[in-house]
User: Fold this.
Amino acid sequence: MIAIYVRQSIEKRDSISIENQIEKCMTEIKDSDTFKIYKDKGFSGKNTNRPAFKELIKDVKYRKINKIVVYRLDRFSRSIADFGSIWQILAKFNVEFISINEKFDTSSPIGVAMLNIIMVFAQLERETISERIKDNYYMRAKIGGWLGGPAPYGFDIEKVNISGKKTSKLIPNKNIHTVKKIFNEYSLETTSLGEIAKKLSSENIPCISKKNWDSVAVSRILHNPIYVKSTPEIYLYLEQKGISIENDINEFDGKKAGMIIGKNSSSKYNNISGQKFTLALHNGVIDANIWLKCQNKLYINSQVKNTGKGKYTWLSGLFKCGNCGYSLKIVSSKGKRYFVCSGKTNYHICDKSYSHADLSEIEYEIKSKVNKIFKDNLIEFDKNEIFKDNQINFSKEIINIDEKINRLLSAVSEGSSISIKYLNREIERLEICKQKLLEKINDKKEKSPKKTILQLNFENCCFEEKKKIIKELIEKIIIQENHVKIIWKI
Assistant:
């Protein structure tokens, strides 16, 4: 039987179609010949991972094929190494090979030599095309053009002309308001990815290629620098993460957004070390301080992993077995909570049972201690001016300034490529801003003789808030046979 093999990777104006290839190959078929057509549409010739091609080779090995006809050799393979191994199979099973476009006789040494020469040029063409595509990719990246693929959530793509060259640029669409909402809500201390996803789904807000929102979809948006207004603080953050930055720090003017480029740039943004970053043509929509706050929260939550995710107590993740040192899990059965040692259930190295330990009693003791801590550390605020003059906001601004100064100092200590002149100038500017805020706070204190005492109440906190407070106060809780030992951080 004669096999006709045809392939087309993508539809292009200057490429021969599958149908035309078949028509050309049919000129080698006589009326008496039986034949079968093997078609691979949408597959590259750089490797042999093609369904119809695999079926063809399988039929060759079953001795169903005695001749293979192709329109052109590169339709069959563009790899010298691949074709070399395939040619050995064809020779082993006495299969004749005919290319319509390149006439040669594979039964003669000259024909085989010509075949190999053609294969060299076929691979060279493929590698040249690949290099040209790569050069075009980085040229678009250099001018900040969108590098291809679907637009990120909240954007559409438009064609623009930059210095006489056409490229793509992102423009915000109506979904950008959802993006802003996601960043603003996640920047709050008590908001989780799951809560945001649930809220967006309940409001029937369209998601990225999914029916409903989930934590992964929200996280992907939050990690992406395509939304942030790139400031020098963003430059420092990215540099400390091990990213190679294509632009100078002076170009980070707080307007343009940026893109991760290079290998794995379209995948998750969790591991961005070793990748490249370039400023984009479009403007950012998220303030740098909000974006950085979200990145810090994402990082902390990723470090926590599964610790403390239990739903039966706000002390989850802190309990340790006093015998083997492994974690104690909390399980609930018929309304009663029990301790289960993971060293016993998972690793079979512990034989202790803690059915006698009373979780409610432990919670009560810790709750009492925490309330005492709050009572002994009362906070004084100006009753009349606290909201009117934004004293709390001043304090938050001071904290943000301190964080920015610390990032700048870290850049110096880690031998950053940023100029010392810029660092000194920026630190000096931040110190002046901080001093002005402190003066405003002190001025308000002097003008307001009336004070009120703010006392935090642990009992009034929600479940998630309690867990966060406890994580700050307690290192671990060791459950022993007749004793509970609480290791406090304070």
Q: What stands out?
A: Residues 264-268, 379-390 have pLDDT under 50 and may be disordered. Residues 155-302 form one domain. Residues 109-142 form the longest helix (34 residues).
